[in-house]
Amino acid sequence: MDSILESLYHGNLHPDENIIPDDSQYSILRKRTSDIIEVWKKRLSAEEFDELEALLDLYGQTHGMELAASFKYGFRMGAGIMVEVFTEKEELADTMSCFWG
After folding, report:
1. Which residue, among 67, 65, 76, 66, has the nearest Cα to 101 in the 3D structure?
2. Distance of alpha carbon 27 from the chain centroid
């Protein structure tokens, strides 16, 4: 089994594909969303549904960007916490905050 660094180097880490919320409401909401999309598919013409799908794709892309930004922010903050813990220099939070934004 590869180390985390080896997996990162070889492009085998895909957190966006492997993260599934453990909230009990997640699967319920996914099913509800799927059911509602099917209702709209039946209600709209093929052209109108294609437009709705295009809108949902745009939303998915922007949401993915937001998740990536959130991941980077959280990772940087976590790394900053570890640096602060290991160096015992609490003022690092102020100097590193420029990297978090």
Report:
1. 76
2. 17
Q: Transcribe 45-82 into DSSP letters.
A: -HHHHHHHHHHHHHHHHHHHHHHHHHHHHHHHHHHHHH
**Tokens representing 52?**
């709705």
Highest-scoring range by mean pLDDT, 13-27, 53-67, 73-87: 53-67
Q: How far apart are CA 80 and CA 76, in angstroms?
A: 6
pLDDT at 16: 80
Sequence spans of domains, the chain: 22-100
Instruction: Give CA–CA dist 84/59, Å, rounded.
Output: 37
Nearest-CA neighbor of 40 among 59, 53, 27, 57?
Answer: 53
Average pLDDT, the chain: 88
